[in-house]
Amino acid sequence: MEYAVRHRTTSRYLQDVSYSRHVLHLAPRTTALQTTRAFNLTVTPAPAQRVRRTDFFGNRADWLALDEPHAVLDIVAESRVTVTAPPVRDAAASEDWLDVHARLEDAADPDASDAVQFVFDSSLTAFTCDIASYAAKSFTPGRPLLQAAIELMGRIHADFRYDSTVTDVATPIDRVFEIRAGVCQDFAHVGIAALRSLGLSARYVSGYLLTRPPPGKPRLVGADASHAWFSVWAPPFGWVDLDPTNNLLPGDEHITLGWGRDYGDVAPSHGVVTGGGDHIIEVGVDVAPIEAASG
Question: Which residues does 96 contact at the CB level (< 8 Å), separation at least 6?
Answer without folding.
Answer: 142, 143, 144, 145
